[in-house]
Design brief:
The complex is a heterodimer of chains A (385) and B (311). Chain A is an all-alpha fold and 385 residues long. Helices cover 69% and strands 1% of the residues of chain A. In chain A, helix 4 (98-117) runs antiparallel to helix 10 and helix 8 crosses helix 10 (219-245). Chain B has a domain at 13-229. Classes of the chains: A mainly alpha (385), B mainly alpha (311).
Chain lengths: 385, 311
């Protein structure tokens, strides 16, 4: 098991139980591929968003820089792989190996992170949020319009699957294992960074940038570093996503991706790894689950519920002389639910936030920080000035 | 020459809509320091309420002096629907999070936004848009080289009227003063005997009425409405609010017009450069580009003073 430095609520769990939980989680990596392909696909997507969430956590959770344009880095990684390996890529004729492009994608991601980070260095808080959101949209529009490199809105298709030992990886299970390895790698790197001198510098910047600067922290350097590392992780996610899905187009890189990643980081509890996993399971897993045939089958068995509810509707109609129509047949419920999954997603965000404003797994340090309501702070600041 | 005048009028028209929506963003930000992501959806609901009134009145068949009445009713219905939905959103999604970490209400707001836009699109309309009945006479006025439609005149005049009304309300009425006091300092305002919750709800309602009006004007001008229609104008209006200096009411108006003008006239100006031919989507690139440039040189926006440090 890598890493012994872990903080937060997790620390209160007895050590034996802790390693057991990690062991179970690691074993599930091997067990999950036994599931049906659609399930593994879902777990892959959950894993992908765990990677993205941990990357964004570096920017938002560690350094406190609210980034709403994270999709730009995800797109950078995916398009690196697409451009260098898709047969329809207009700019590049050769098709490089995935394993060659992957490190390049990480570097390009970091470069994009620094490039987008530089102009926004003086901005803070909500100004930063809206500018990064703008960057995300600009990158998407650029991808649509740079037809001679990205093939525009037609996208890049037939992206080859990576080879392992000269054999093409063409099953979702292998991709699942790949994303889990990527997640463990990201987790290892980001937690080590958090607990290092760099992590402490980020934390100081997050708490008060001016004071951090006065204490001799090079805020420019560390902020850019946070952007670069977060972006690099985003690009890693994109690079694995592209050969998995084999077709990328600007439509896959909308603001919704940025929103999803930010939401799962915050819903999970900012700054905690378990939180990212839980948030990802809820926000990515549940909407995916609603599209499953298993869900449809289960709902088809709900005819009795429909009869009951229709009875209630009839009674309501006779009493109030209203004209409420019957519910659709139970075998249509699954389809409806698949269509309604974004409605469910939106409602989930609100409900989880209202019930657990600190997220599902808040880190202990942050809980202590927020013991004092923000008003006390505002009033204190006002009195001092 | 007349081409540029047309562009100018177009810019001012979109600018009016941005300005109206931006007012709601900036006022809510002033009192709660919250990016009210659901504001674009409040705008959308207002547009649909107005649509309902116009359709119920007979749609495009309405003619003569009845048009004025129907549009007035549509504006009233839109304002009412937007105000009601904004009040409900504030009560259910924001008030429980008043003392939570700063990002919690933001995520809640995003949740409301996704929920409402998909509820309308997937839940009620099956992903199809609705055609806004064109009740407004399509006539144009010509002043010299300038051709301008009655609709555009109405749109600009009515938005200016609403903004003047708002500025009177904020400056001179009791509720307006309480809103200003709360956005200045919530603690002190409550010590002065101001009912903070009431002021916050009032802020949401006023912002929502502006957005609802903008929704009807948008429907009349762009003629297609859908559940996701609030998204882009919402983002643009927020950009406008930041551009003008978030929290500042004149800033939102100036920011809205600046943004509207820059993205229409700016694209055409760039297209004048030989060899450059930018498609329509570049309006967004220009809008956000302008934002970045302004914020680099003036990080608090045109009229802004307050800088929020926390993410």
């Amino acid at each position: 098991m890598p890493g012994t430095v872990r903080r937060a609520t997790w620390d209160r769990v007895p050590a034996g139980l802790r390693s057991l939980a990690w062991l179970a989680l690691s074993l599930s990596v091997l067990v999950i591929p036994v599931f049906d392909d659609t399930w593994v696909r879902m777990f892959f997507l959950v894993g992908l968003y765990v990677v993205l969430g941990m990357g964004l956590n570096v920017v938002v959770g560690f350094a406190g820089l609210l980034d709403l344009g994270y999709v730009a880095f995800f797109a950078a990684g995916a398009y690196m792989v697409g451009i260098w390996s898709s047969p329809v890529s207009p700019a590049v004729d050769t098709s490089l190996s995935f394993w060659l492009i992957l490190p390049l994608a990480l570097v390009v991601g970091a470069v994009v992170g620094v490039l987008l980070g530089m102009p926004v260095l003086p901005l803070r808080g909500d100004y930063l949020a809206i500018v990064t959101l703008g960057f995300g949209e600009i990158v998407r529009i650029l991808v649509v319009n740079m037809t001679n490199v990205t093939n525009g809105s037609q996208g890049l298709y037939n992206i080859p699957r990576p080879d392992i030992a000269y054999r093409e990886v063409d099953n979702v299970q292998a991709f699942y294992v790949m994303i889990v390895l990527a997640a463990f790698g990201t987790w290892f790197v980001t937690t080590r960074l958090r607990d290092s001198r760099i992590g402490r510098a980020w934390e100081a910047i997050r708490e008060d940038e001016d004071v951090a600067g006065a204490m001799g922290i090079n805020t420019t350097k560390y902020k850019l570093m946070a952007f670069a590392i977060g972006a690099s992780v985003g690009a890693l996610g994109g690079a694995i996503y592209a050969p998995f899905i084999t077709f990328i187009s600007p439509e896959s890189f909308t603001l919704l991706v940025s929103i999803n990643v930010l939401a799962l980081v915050i819903i999970g509890g900012m700054g905690s790894t378990q939180g990212v996993v839980a948030g990802s399971l809820i926000l990515i897993g549940i909407p995916e689950l609603l599209q499953f045939s298993e869900t449809r089958d289960a709902l088809e068995q709900m005819g009795w519920a429909r009869d009951g509810l229709n009875g209630a509707i009839h009674a309501f109609n006779t009493v109030t002389t209203a004209d409420v129509s019957d519910l659709p047949p139970a075998d249509e419920w699954g389809e409806k639910l698949a269509v309604y999954r974004f409605i469910v997603f939106g409602a989930l965000l609100v409900v989880v936030m209202v019930l657990r404003p600190m997220g599902l797994f808040p880190s202990r340090r942050r809980t202590l920080e927020f013991e004092y309501p923000p008003e006390a702070e505002v009033a204190g600041g006002g009195g001092g000035s | 020459m007349s081409f540029w005048l047309d562009q100018l009028v177009n810019g001012l028209t979109t600018g009016s809509i941005y300005a109206l929506i931006a007012l709601g963003y900036t006022m809510v930000y002033g009192v709660l320091q919250l990016i009210n992501f659901a504001h674009g959806e409040v705008f959308m609901l207002g547009s649909f309420a107005g649509f309902g009134v116009i359709v119920a009145a007979g749609g495009a068949d309405v003619s003569g002096p009845m048009v004025a009445l129907v549009i007035l009713l549509a504006l009233v219905a839109a304002g009412a629907a937007s105000a009601a939905s904004a009040t409900a959103i504030e009560r259910l999604a924001y008030r429980p999070l008043r003392n939570a970490p700063r990002l919690a209400p933001l995520i809640s707001a995003i949740g409301v936004s996704v929920f409402l836009s998909h509820l309308v699109d997937d839940g009620f309309l099956n992903g199809e848009g609705r055609y806004y009945p064109q009740v407004f006479p399509a006539d144009t006025i010509e002043i010299g080289a300038l051709t301008i439609s009655y609709l555009q005149v109405f749109l600009m005049a009515s938005s200016v009227a609403m903004m003047l009304g708002l500025s009177y309300f904020i400056r001179s009425t009791r509720t307006g003063k309480s809103i200003r006091a709360v956005s200045e300092n919530r603690e002190n305002a409550s010590l002065m005997g101001i009912d903070v919750n009431r002021a916050i709800v009032a802020t949401f309602i006023i912002g929502a009425i502006m957005a609802g009006f903008a929704g009807v004007l948008y429907g009349l001008f762009y003629s297609t409405i859908r559940g996701s229609m609030g998204f882009l104008p919402g983002i643009k209006a927020f950009t406008a609010a930041v551009l003008g200096g978030i929290g500042s009411i004149p800033g939102a108006v100036v920011g809205g017009y600046c943004l509207g003008l820059t993205e229409t006239v700016g694209r055409e100006l760039l297209n004048e450069i030989p060899g450059v031919n930018l498609p329509n989507e570049w309006r967004d690139v220009i809008a956000f580009g302008l934002l970045v440039v302004i914020l680099i040189f003036r990080p608090t926006g045109i009229f802004g003073e307050r800088v929020s440090k926390r993410a």
